[in-house]
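Researcher: Please generate the 3D structure of the following complex. Treat every line as part of one assembly.
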Amino acid sequence: MANLFAAAGTRIRLLVQLGFTAATNSYVKGFADGRIYTGPLKSACVPGLSCYSCPGALGSCPVGALQAVLASRNYSFSFYLTGFFLMVGAAFGRFVCGWLCPFGLVQDLLHKIPLGRKIRAVKGDRYLRLLKYGILLGFVILLPLFVVDFVGQGEPWFCKWICPSGTLMAGWPLVLLNNGIRQAAGFLFVWKSLILIVLIVLSIFLYRPFCKYLCPLGAIYGLFNPIALYRFRIDQGKCTNCNACQRACKMNIQVRKNPNSMECIRCGDCISACRPKALARR
Amino acid sequence: MILLKKLSKIRNHNGKSAIGLLVPATLILAGAAFVLIGIERGEVGIVLRKAINICLECIGIG
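Model: Done. Output below.
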């Protein structure tokens, strides 16, 4: 019975992920012409890591937008994006990662490929998870803010050197569809493609390596997990300490100890696995 | 963050988290105010300008 609930929960989540990704990247004309949508909807951000240069994208990527504002000459702080993160984070926390992020969906699908032995955690997992906070601070905030050219304009360092979502959703389709862009692709494109390929291969064996170790957006939303409106709670009276929740958790979190961990992506697998129904959404 | 973690562990007499609705609701309202200030300051123009042009950095060209 518990397995049945788990399967139903996973299927519902997959449908929501597919639906949200399709809805926010539904500019079909962009895919046909090898161009991007240029309408006013792009002033608004989508909650997940969804590149605004994807031919189908209707909204903006919040991490890209934050870097764009910080790298501009006029601003050294973004009220618009800070407000956006406060609202989405305080309401949902990392629910966005588990249910709404297109790149999370890609990693989920890759992990379903029945190839080799699945790895639960890599050596140094605990410390590697701190990398995403370094990337957030360095590549998303400090470098765009302080490394500027002679007119005071910075660059989106995370987008340029790391973001695999941009390579997958924008780089590869546009290089494929647009002749001019294909001719301009060089070292940077190869570098970013290599990062993406490594993550694709890794995702088959290890669950969501990008979310665990590298994603600055997950780092931001994770800060809100302990206090967000959407939280998990454990009824200690019902908990039998069977550890089924921890075994079900692919993010490898100690669910019983900390159900609102900053690493939790709210997939709900732990809730589905809890037979005594001790775990619940708040 | 440590303070938030401690706060989330404090329980009221019903056994519910002391954070309850107050902290997230306040943050959401503050966030809405920040968004409005950002719009007023013209940050949206920068976001839109960046988003409607192909981001060469994102695709690995510029």
